[in-house]
Specification:
Shape: globular
Distance between the termini: 9 Å
Strand content: 5-15%
Radius of gyration: 27 Å
Number of domains: 3
Number of strands: 17
Largest sheet: 10 strands, mixed
Oligomer: single chain
């Protein structure tokens, strides 16, 4: 299996303006003339419309990018029009295809990207005077993009008024403590997707004498950094008691701790506070990157497909445009990242063998002996270690063969207990599917090969069951997404792939910890 490496070759000054080479020159040859004719194209109405379009770019998380600078001293009207044309094409490219070219970030990126003749489109929009409508059509139009856009605007607005100091002061909190910081912790866990709702059954349980937490200003300055207060006896209370840190909150916190590589003990300590103190600005930054990643994608994905979100370690199966199944997956660990691929499943493999890749054979398994091979049902064939079919096989009892040259595929596993982990970036790059046999049965039924599949399973031998039509699979990396309940959910950036994108969108590098899963086994 080819191991992914992150190649950061970022140069803002070399950003392409068009899908083809060129930029302003191409624009001018595509019916956007220079000099006097350009002055007619950039009429006062078009200039005003474009100014409003740029003023509204925060809807796309692009408000940190300057597309059109103030004219230089001595600039002629022709110079100004040329700069405006360049800015218009630059912004159109950002909306239609993305500000960043993913091919400059990833050694492997095969997801189809949108195509458009932006120069010709701009020329028509200028001629017809419908510049605003043309720009509006370039960005994704789906509900998820709209939800992320709305969330970006909300978190950006909150970040402008929120205090930049640490939101949650230092000091350890354990189950049973009453502490004024608990409502803020609940809010952060809710925004991050670890608690379903601040008013739900997992939220903090207030002391009967405590004020309504919803009445408090969520943007108010945090209390000074002091040790957790000790509750006084009921008779001695003269002020309302703080919120109670319950076991339910601690259990939710364990999920966050696991995701960020912190000891999952449910105790609010220094390392946990670093993550909890990610503020509205951090959320907005993640949302801006999420919007950018979606602009990279084709606007009409296959109606029947499988989308694997490698950042969240989740799979969604779409049938005729509707989600019919969702389940957990295990994906590549940092350093052995599951690449961003578009690759179809073309057959099911019952009772697969596993030919150990040379990278593993010469690495983790370099010193194994005959006893180890026998214990794991492995044999050596022509210099390759091969694991025989069976429930102990690293691929489990089913493999979903995919057509790509990266040796990446979906499969079962002999270690199903790992699906219970919050952090599931544990593999060598392939995708392990929760209840893979059940998923294979679902695909077999949907594709009309149920009898052939069941016969293949019962054989006990490796058997191939071709699918009558290929099922497209997209391996995506979305650490901000809309969950099954319709909420915007935040997850970690386990591969550290967000920073190069955020920087080109005008944001600073993140300082928060990333997920740090440790390898569990030698499976693919």
């Amino acid at each position: 299996m080819k191991i992914m490496t992150l190649r950061v070759r970022l140069a803002l000054c070399s950003m392409p303006l068009l899908a083809v080479s060129g930029g302003l020159a191409d624009a001018q040859t595509a019916s956007i003339p220079a000099s006097k004719a350009a002055r007619a194209a950039w009429s006062a109405a078009n200039v005003a419309a474009f100014a409003q379009v740029l003023a509204d770019r925060a809807r796309h998380g692009l408000d940190h990018v300057v597309f059109l600078a103030d004219p230089a001293d001595g600039a002629t009207p022709a110079d100004i029009d040329a700069a405006r044309t360049k800015a218009a094409l630059d912004y159109a490219t950002a909306l239609a295809q993305g500000r960043v070219d993913p091919a400059t970030l990833h050694e492997v990126y095969t997801l189809p990207r949108p195509k458009a003749d932006l120069a010709a489109g701009l020329a028509r929009a200028l001629a017809k005077g419908d510049l605003a409508a043309w720009f509006d059509r370039l960005a994704p139009q789906d509900a998820e993009y709209k939800a992320l856009s709305d969330a970006y605007l909300a978190f950006s607005a909150k970040a402008t008024v929120a205090t930049p100091v640490q939101a949650i002061p230092s000091g350890v909190i354990r189950v049973g403590n009453r502490d004024a910081r608990v409502p803020t912790i609940v809010e952060q866990l809710t925004e991050s997707g670890y608690l379903p709702t601040a008013a739900g059954p997992l939220s903090a349980a207030p002391d009967p004498l405590a004020p309504d937490p919803l009445a408090a200003d969520p943007l108010a300055a945090a209390p000074p950094a002091v040790a957790p207060p000790v509750a006084a006896p009921p008779a001695a209370r003269s002020t309302p008691a703080p919120m109670l840190y319950t076991q339910a909150i601690a259990d939710a916190l364990k999920g966050l701790q696991t995701d960020y590589g912190i000891a999952a003990d449910g105790v609010v300590g220094p390392e946990t506070l670093k993550v909890l103190n990610l503020g509205a600005g951090d959320r907005a930054r993640a949302l801006a990157v999420g919007l950018e990643r979606r602009r990279w994608l084709t606007r009409t994905p296959p109606a029947t497909r499988i989308d694997v979100n490698t950042a969240a370690a989740q799979l969604r199966y779409y049938r005729d445009g509707a989600v019919v199944d969702q389940r957990k997956v295990i994906v590549g660990e940092p350093g052995r990242e599951t690449p961003a691929l578009s690759s179809p499943i073309y057959r099911l493999v019952a009772n697969p063998t596993w030919t150990v890749p040379k990278s593993i054979q010469n690495g983790e398994m370099a010193n194994v002996g005959e006893d180890y091979l026998a214990e794991h049902n492995m044999v050596v064939r022509d210099g390759w270690i091969v694991q025989q079919p069976g429930p102990s096989n690293a691929l489990g009892l089913v493999k979903f063969d995919m057509a790509n040259d990266q040796a990446i595929y979906l499969h079962d596993t002999s270690a199903p207990g790992l699906f219970e982990r919050s952090q599931r970036h544990l593999s060598h790059g392939c995708v392990r599917v929760e209840d893979a046999l059940g998923f294979a049965q679902m695909l077999a039924e949907d594709e009309g090969v149920t009898e052939a599949w069941q016969t293949a399973q019962a054989s006990g031998e490796m058997t191939f069951v071709p699918l009558p039509r290929r099922i497209p699979v997209r391996l995506l990396y979305h650490n901000v997404y809309v969950d099954e309940g319709g909420r915007v959910a935040f997850r970690t950036d386990p591969y550290g792939w967000n920073d190069p994108i955020a920087e080109q969108l005008g944001f600073t590098r993140a300082s928060a910890k990333r997920a740090e899963a440790q390898a569990i086994d030698i499976g693919p």
